[in-house]
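Lab notebook, page 48
Experiment: co-folding of the full assembly
Goal: obtain a model of how the components sit together before planning crosslinking
Operator: M.T.
Materials (sequences as entered):
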Amino acid sequence: MKKISAVLVLFFPFFSVNGQQPNPAQYVNPLIGTQKMGHTYPGATVPFGSVQLSPDTDQQPHNIGGKYNKDAYKYCAGYQYDDSSIVGFSHTHFSGTGHSDLGDFLIMPSVGELQLEPGSKADPKSGFRSAFSHANEIAEPGYYKVKLDDDNIWAEMTATTRVGFHQYTFPKSDNAHIIFDLMHGIYNYDDKNVWTFVRVENDRTIVGYRQTNGWARTRTVYFAMEFSKPFSSYGFKNFGKEDYKGFWRKFDQSKNFPEMAGKQIRAYFDFKTEDGEKVNIKFSLSPVSTEGAMKNLKAEIPHWDFERTKREAKAEWNKELGKIDVTAPSRDDLVNFYTALYHTFLSPTVYMDVDGKYKGLDQNTHQANGFTNYTTFSLWDTYRALHPFFNIVQPKRNRDMVRSMMAHYDQSVHKMLPVWSHYANENWCMIGYHSVSVIADAIVKNNIEGIDAGKTLDAMAQTARTKYYDGLEHYMKMGYVPEDKNSSSVSKTLEYAYDDWCIAQAAKKLNRTDIFNEFSKRSENWKNVYDSSSGFMRPKMSDGKFREKFDALQTHDQGFIEGNAWNYSLYVPHDPAEMIEMMGGKAKFSKHMDELFTMHLPDEFFAETEDITREGIIGNYVHGNEPAHHAAYLYNWTDDKWKTQERVRMILKNQYRPTPDGLGGNDDCGQMSAWYLFSALGFYPVAPGSDQYALGSPVIKTATIKLENGKTLSIEALNQSDKNVYVEKVLVNGKQIDRPYLTHAEIINGGKITFYMSETAKR
Amino acid sequence: MKKISAVLVLFFPFFSVNGQQPNPAQYVNPLIGTQKMGHTYPGATVPFGSVQLSPDTDQQPHNIGGKYNKDAYKYCAGYQYDDSSIVGFSHTHFSGTGHSDLGDFLIMPSVGELQLEPGSKADPKSGFRSAFSHANEIAEPGYYKVKLDDDNIWAEMTATTRVGFHQYTFPKSDNAHIIFDLMHGIYNYDDKNVWTFVRVENDRTIVGYRQTNGWARTRTVYFAMEFSKPFSSYGFKNFGKEDYKGFWRKFDQSKNFPEMAGKQIRAYFDFKTEDGEKVNIKFSLSPVSTEGAMKNLKAEIPHWDFERTKREAKAEWNKELGKIDVTAPSRDDLVNFYTALYHTFLSPTVYMDVDGKYKGLDQNTHQANGFTNYTTFSLWDTYRALHPFFNIVQPKRNRDMVRSMMAHYDQSVHKMLPVWSHYANENWCMIGYHSVSVIADAIVKNNIEGIDAGKTLDAMAQTARTKYYDGLEHYMKMGYVPEDKNSSSVSKTLEYAYDDWCIAQAAKKLNRTDIFNEFSKRSENWKNVYDSSSGFMRPKMSDGKFREKFDALQTHDQGFIEGNAWNYSLYVPHDPAEMIEMMGGKAKFSKHMDELFTMHLPDEFFAETEDITREGIIGNYVHGNEPAHHAAYLYNWTDDKWKTQERVRMILKNQYRPTPDGLGGNDDCGQMSAWYLFSALGFYPVAPGSDQYALGSPVIKTATIKLENGKTLSIEALNQSDKNVYVEKVLVNGKQIDRPYLTHAEIINGGKITFYMSETAKR
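Observation: model returned without errors.
Model output:
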């Protein structure tokens, strides 16, 4: 390998990640997406880690006076790059979500007079929050460092899968504190807490849990926390409802009383520190118990060597990121690529103790036998590209994700696969039942080893037959969701139809004719909402007529969700050819697509488009939301395939930049990044559940994917440059192909794919 | 045995419980104590059962407008005999407590229009509650039946250890309901709920849990519920905070949606019923999980035969009650005796699943290996007579209770034995650390088999050294609790001194000289609060002077709790002789005692005496509260032992009556009843932790105690009658004894104790 690497370096000396010690992590900038709408977090985590230990720059209630508080949305990941103060460091964060939750267990060091209120952004000194500046901030995979200016404390953090490792370097003080805020949270900050429970086991160890009612309705996270040095005293304040007074008659519980509980509490621990003294905290999480949290803590970090854990976290990242070896025209491309790869490896997250115990959807404790249980399935987003990407780069993990989804199904009282699930909860966010896409894709791509595929198929069919789910009964009866019965009806009809096609594909693969027939038929339901008079998909009423009120530019109340008719009408990923035919044929469709990408979307329509910045739009094409993620590839079904190449390169360039504001929309648990990765490599899974990938235009120069089956896939883009966005021809293992797609076999069996790039489109 | 029984019947034909099928349960009237201050419940339970399925006649908030609501107190056991309507039947009840909690999972049948509010006492028809009358009510051990007049429904219930079995006989209705109220509770009714979670697994099975913050700060009870017939529809209403709206956008969750959660919810299940149709419900509890609750349900009642479970419950009661075979002068005496025995066998309650899993004080799930885990330790009450009684009649259970207390200790973050514990919580109620009395009594009486006695001793010592506990640091430093530092200081000083003596006794038995010395010394601390000028124990300040303000009749703010100086000053159970000497010698003390029993306590002082009716007082002697429970026996340490006999018989007669209002004070988890049982048998454990029982005056004619060691103790009171309250002589195995006490060996080794009763006192 060393020799080959040397050769590669010779050929592509400029930004190779090869060398003695492969260090792709150097290209990752976790700050990308932390500004504006990316909703990523900059803190420390390991690949798919349960702990995301990251600074929160504010906490905002989800509602104020019963009304939605728009500011809450900015803090979906806890951190906004434009802020100039940090409230503290909490242990759980979603990466790139649009709604949110989590933000559990905020830790904040301070010196001087104890402050138990966070204080305001305008005046950080009014509370325990502290000013900071990006000049004193380092964010790397598995490591985060910042100087807290108010008290001159350096904060560093790293992590293992289940343990956050803090390191605070204090000034000399007789009055140093670690504040432990159990009220802090992301979304619904002041009324999300249901209960918190804390035990001070000894002068270094604390355990407990926090139970919330937020996006996850019934959610509990357990913790164990250990200090590197004993605290001299401690206490807490209950900001919520007073306890039964008997407790308080007997003790002064506010000070040095080892048991704390309540709905709203903040605790603190006092130290004396020398100048430059480091106080470390190991903080572990468990889905099931404090006992489990203690086990995790002891198993994963049995020492106090912060540098060692930091090193190991970095190594773990390099191992995962190193699965794809890339060279590219510019360092920015590498930063974009590896940061996207980093973002795709953040979630779903491991959700079980070191001994395999996890909380199930039924709120019972279960044992994961023979698999790693994962949570945080943002499936409406991630079925599109993230899971297909995993089928190539993380096939084992994807199998375990399928197993986790099946465990969810087994534990579901609805007998449904997950829709949007996190932390032993179904939050029902968005639409469709896209678990079936993820599983069908795994089945079709033969990444189902060790899983009872027949059972997954039954689960898929059963899920798709849940009458009371979101208009399904109407859909099953009438072939579409009527808008007067259930809103966003067109989006639902289109996505159900695609999902049904996925089920049919899995059934075909498994020779289950009955299910194949049932769902093949359903998969054509998209046709029922196409309005030939307007040329768009359009909401239909239960009387069979299209709704009169209709505006193809508007997003809200037009029968769609997170997309207008222009974007959403393209959503027939499983049968673009038929769709194009219906919309007037290839030539007309190609023009229609051009219009999408080039028209001007007036501000009034943009204003109501959620989750994205103005930059998240190209013309009227909304890349910041997912429904049209496959759209640029649809030219492949026309005679203007070169337009796909052009558009894809434009999106890659416009929508992904190596800066904090570099993401034009929510990263959505890696979906936006997975789009980047596929497209950067030159192909994209327009219809997960098929074994085909539409060809686009790669942005890399070379990529070597080390597959888990031991094989290697090399991708080479000859004559690559910013100008040469067109693909002249594509060779698979030296043989030119005359079709606009690759097959999964061509990828997973390894070999070489060569793109010949050109400045001229091949019309 | 049969033959012996026959002989007994020959001698004492009149109210023997012997016969072909011993049926002592016939003498039990669970309604005794349900009126006024007894705080017992009339519903169905088995001995020490986890489920207490009982009617609740009202639900009262613990506080109204931030102030204590006196009416809550009336409903400590959910049922007040004077009420004329029933709200429903809930599954958990304390027997006889002074504070309260529980009342989980209320079930109520109804027909006609669905009502989801309970309605008012004044107008039961305004809600789902129903009028009832005692004429249509049957309460027996393990069985309760009542007619719900409003809807003409007969309700019956029985139970196993972990499962309540309901039977509702409906009229014909197209609109019959079972209401399932998860908001209902005892104490803190409207804000005790922290969270509730319910899943409708299928059209007959429901599981879930309820989490409360009441007397127990952090308490969760899990359930599983099965109907004998499928419901046709169901639904629920959330009376609390609204959920994250995403849940509700997708579904109409109010109807036929199988997952319910919230802080305040009531559910309902609809049926069609024929006239006279019975609908049964099996309802199981678990301390750890819904999975555990399902296991318990299937293991304990794997059928739908209500009569069978009822029969088995009765048989279980007869087995336990049959451990003492009694004859007595009147049926009333038998009713008093067996009802008292019934009440002593209600708690502590089994607190683990059929597979041994239970929730520990650390909120983790633990496995009870080799013992049955119990909860509900009302130790300030029950150390006095209940646990000593168990050391005779329920030694195995008492050992398991000690094991349960040790498990509590092991799981305690304070490393303390229980003070007042229930459902994996320490509620810290009342004072002292009387676990040590229970354990010392077991050690001294050799009922410690299979338990690491040395470890229990360390636990006792460790508990007694918890500086931050309730004035202990001062007590340890100064030899008393100073009233200016910690209120109820005299009661605390006296009880700590007694508890310390218990530790010393255990240490002596186990040859642990260090601990013996330490705690023997501490056990004399009672002397530090005796004020010779007033002749009473009296609050002392931290400057070493007695507090000036002092009123020996007042109860509140006099340095005592639940007792005035007259009653509490007698509290030196471990050294009455020394106490009497200090108080002026035998003769003076005897007169002092006479005054206690005969003086008139003005109403103003009674008014502030908690937990008792006017009848719970004899003179100024308060039997309805516990501190002076040993007092009547103190004459034994004077030359007027006959006065003990007279007073005891007076108390037995006045304070225990076979009527709903028959208990003069809270039964306190069996302590009041255990006092009755000991005294009725002729002896009483003045100082648990010693092996001596002070002699009194039995009220029975004969009693045969079938000991677990296979031996039999016969007690005979010759010439017994209501008038013959004096004991002429006592023979142990035919040999007259010349001391006023029995030893534990004389009891536990079996044999015969004969009292010769007389109308004349032996002066």
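Interpretation: Residues 1-19 of chain B have pLDDT under 50 and may be disordered.
Next step: discuss with group before ordering constructs.
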